[in-house]
Design a protein that fits this description.
The complex is a heterodimer of chains A (262) and B (325). With 262 residues, chain A is an alpha/beta fold. Chain A has 5 helices and 16 strands. Chain A folds into 2 domains: 8-105, Translation factors (Elongation Factor Tu (Ef-tu), domain 3, Beta Barrel); 116-259, Rossmann fold, CATH 3.40.50.80. In chain A, the strands form 3 sheets. Chain A has a 7-stranded antiparallel β-sheet with strand order 4-3-7-1-2-6-5. In chain A, strands 11-10-9-8-12-13-16 form a 7-stranded mixed β-sheet, with helices on both faces. In chain B, helix 4 runs parallel beside helix 6 (164-175) and helix 6 packs parallel to helix 7. Chain B has a 7-stranded parallel β-sheet with strand order 3-13-12-9-8-7-6. Chain B has a 4-stranded antiparallel β-sheet with strand order 4-5-11-10, with no helix packed on it. In chain B, strands 1-2 form a two-stranded antiparallel ribbon. Classes of the chains: A alpha/beta (262), B alpha/beta (325). The complex binds flavin-adenine dinucleotide, flavin mononucleotide (FMN) and FE2/S2 (inorganic) cluster.
Chain lengths: 262, 325
């Protein structure tokens, strides 16, 4: 199924639920980095894939889709931002707590044959980029990352990242360069043939898409959508693409940058 | 689930839904579980391990449908609201995929949608023609149909189910197109759910399923504008269970010996038993499928325990208890 340039079905998805113990929890303002013992997920995962997390406690019906922030040996890590009720509850998980997690799900970022990679993230959209950077670097690629945030509070997430060549912008100028991630891109010296990987809010995706076309680069994007099943059953998570309506949980979340219509 | 108690094997959970023998009363609710998608994400042989007693696929229509604009689904207090809009590839592309899940052991009740009697009948006729010509082993075990006249998210769907005359026309056209078991799925968005039920049965339906979702609305908390792309959607999940139970009881009382599939907010085995107590023959599980891949196995184990704990020899002994004077 995995035709050239296609992201669909490059990686196997797996949906059985694992009861995962939190082995480490780091809190960064409104964010948390949660490390979970999840050998079956960690072993199969690839960057860009996500998991469906059951929010512990009463009153949460749907599971929350969360990207893999890293996966190594027996552990996965998640970078969670408290946005609403459920994600706020997840950021309060403590070491020893047990959560139900299903995954890995969805398509992965293609990394084969990539020598120069530019990772562009906005807000919590940055979450899948650490894992991607780790894999690309391990494969010998030259990795540069540009992350943009609204303000000082949102930029607390930067503390979770360990990407070597990393530049940061905030719209209020409180951290890194003042401006958006586009200002960071304009200042970069980008090698021809660089592969761009983007995830973040819709306006950022649209701007990165325009910039990428203009620079003659190709790339991939990870999209978000409201989900019910997370496993291809309900058609709740579709987005419009050049290939028609596709499901973010199944054909995505990773799509080719030139096929999405943000 | 490793911490589950071993099931009590002496409890007979099998039921007969009209002519269809079910190993237990639980089926999936249309649109909430796709057997092929699950099989792709499962380590073993999902088609052999399918946990429900029958499979109800997502509603299929005569022509392909692209569905509603996103967003299409979100959580509500104790519920889920959706406005998918019957996205499906159309009956011909749907039939072309049948071979991929032909090995499913469970009987199949095909959910059919449309905007006119002709469109409903066209789906059934196309499938019947295919089944008649198909070599053994190349198609799943289709035993019947569930006519979805009750989708609140498409122009036509809900209106048919809210209008007894239109319901009877759809059922009549479908009855003429198949000899197989025919369920009609009723909408709860009416004053008296038994009116459409009577119309469906009068036009030749063998049984009824209820409820489909309640027409509802959620707002975007920032903009105070309708959140769903379709503006309105259908509400399901625990929030609707008490109303669904009342409606199932009304229908069971009105049509005592009719095969009934009850649904609406079933999350536990006790919920399922409550629908049976209100007169349901079988019980469909929808939104609970979104909570866990293993939800049906858990609900079934709980149902078995509930039936045994109450001293019933068979699940049928619990049927209709809530209807007694
Ligand atoms: C593929 C994918 C990967 C994601 N990765 C991450 C990540 O790594 N870290 C992180 O913090 N967040 C991530 N998100 C966003 C995260 O899923 C939402 O922030 C979260 O679901 C919000 O839940 P809530 O209960 O706090 O919000 P509420 O608004 O109370 O949630 C109500 C419902 O809406 C859904 N919902 C609300 N906002 C979003 C959203 N932006 N995207 C999808 N569903 C939403 C919820 O899942 C829930 O069903 C990802 C989303 C997707 C689709
Ligand atoms: C995402 C979603 C999609 C649905 N699609 C269909 C459908 O295609 N056909 C149909 O008859 N009912 C459909 N339904 C309704 C369910 O089959 C069921 O009637 C309803 O959800 C009530 O059961 P529940 O509370 O257990 O979910 C859908 C429900 C949901 C949540
Ligand atoms: S969330 Fe159900 S199909 Fe994607």
């Amino acid at each position: 199924m995995s035709g050239s340039g296609q992201t669909h079905d490059d990686h196997r998805q797996w949906a059985e639920t694992s009861h995962c113990r939190v082995s480490a929890a780091r809190h960064l303002g409104g964010f948390a980095v949660l490390e979970l013992i999840a050998p079956r997920i960690a072993r199969r995962a690839a960057p860009g894939q996500f998991v469906m997390v059951t929010v512990p406690g009463e009153g949460y019906l749907l599971r929350r889709p969360i990207s893999l922030f890293s996966a190594e040996a027996d552990c996965i890590a998640l970078l969670v931002e408290a946005r609403g009720r459920g994600s706020e509850r997840l950021t309060r998980l403590e070491v020893g707590d047990v959560v139900d997690v299903a995954g890995p799900l969805g398509s992965a970022f293609p990394t084969q044959g990539v020598t120069n990679a530019l990772l562009v993230g906005g807000g919590i959209g940055c979450a899948p980029l650490q894992y991607l950077a780790d894999e690309l670097a391990a494969a010998g690629a030259h990795v540069t990352a540009a992350l943009g945030f609204r303000d000082f509070r949102a930029a607390r997430a930067v503390g979770a990242f360990t990407i070597e060549r990393l530049s940061v912008a905030t719209e209020d100028g409180s951290v890194g360069r003042a401006g958006t991630v586009l200002h960071l891109l304009a200042a970069l010296d980008v090698a021809p043939g660089t592969t761009v990987y983007a995830c973040g809010p819709t306006p950022m995706i649209a701007a990165v898409q325009r910039w990428t076309f203009h620079e003659g680069l190709r790339g991939y994007v990870s999209l978000e959508a409201h989900m019910a099943c997370g496993t291809g059953s309900c058609h709740g998570c579709v987005v419009d693409t050049a290939r028609g309506k596709l499901r973010v949980c199944s054909e995505g979340p990773v799509f080719r940058l030139d096929e999405v219509t943000p | 689930m490793s911490d589950r108690r071993p099931p009590a094997p002496e409890t007979d959970l099998s039921v007969r839904l009209g002519p269809v023998e079910l190993a237990h009363p639980l089926v999936d609710a249309s649109g909430t579980l796709d057997v092929l998608e699950y099989a792709r994400r499962y380590d073993g042989d999902y088609l052999a391990d399918f946990p429900y007693a029958a499979y109800v696929p997502k509603t299929v229509t005569a022509d392909p449908r692209t569905g509603n604009p996103p967003p299409r689904v979100t959580e509500t207090p104790s519920g889920v609201i959706n406005a998918i809009g019957l996205e499906n590839p159309g009956v011909h592309a749907w039939i072309a995929q049948l071979g991929e899940w032909a090995a499913l052991r469970a009987p199949v009740l095909v959910s059919v949608g449309g905007n006119s009697p002709e469109q409903y009948a066209a789906v059934i006729s196309a499938l019947e023609a295919h089944l008649a010509a198909a070599p053994p082993g190349t198609v799943p075990d289709v035993r019947g149909y569930e006519l979805n006249v009750s989708c609140p998210n498409v122009v036509g769907g809900l209106q048919i189910g809210a209008d007894p005359t239109a319901t009877a026309e759809v059922v009549g056209a479908c009855r003429a197109a198949t000899a197989r078991f025919l369920l009609t799925k009723l909408t709860p968005n009416v004053r008296d759910v038994t009116e459409a039920g009577a119309a469906a049965l009068g036009a030749g339906a063998d049984g009824l399923s209820l409820v489909n979702t309640f027409k509802a609305m959620v707002l975007d908390r920032d903009t105070l504008r309708p959140f769903l792309g379709n503006r309105t959607g259908g509400l399901c999940g625990p929030a609707i269970k008490p109303i669904a139970l009342r409606m199932v009881a009304e229908v069971a009382r009105a049509f005592p010996d009719t095969p009934l599939v009850g649904m609406g907010g079933v999350m536990t085995g006790l919920d399922a038993l409550e629908f049976i107590a209100c007169g349901a023959t079988a019980v469909a599980v929808g939104a609970a499928n979104f909570t866990s891949f293993e939800a049906p196995q858990r609900i079934l184990a709980e149902l078995r325990d509930e039936v045994a704990a109450r001293g019933f020899g068979t699940v049928g002994e619990a049927r209709g208890i809530a209807l007694r004077a």
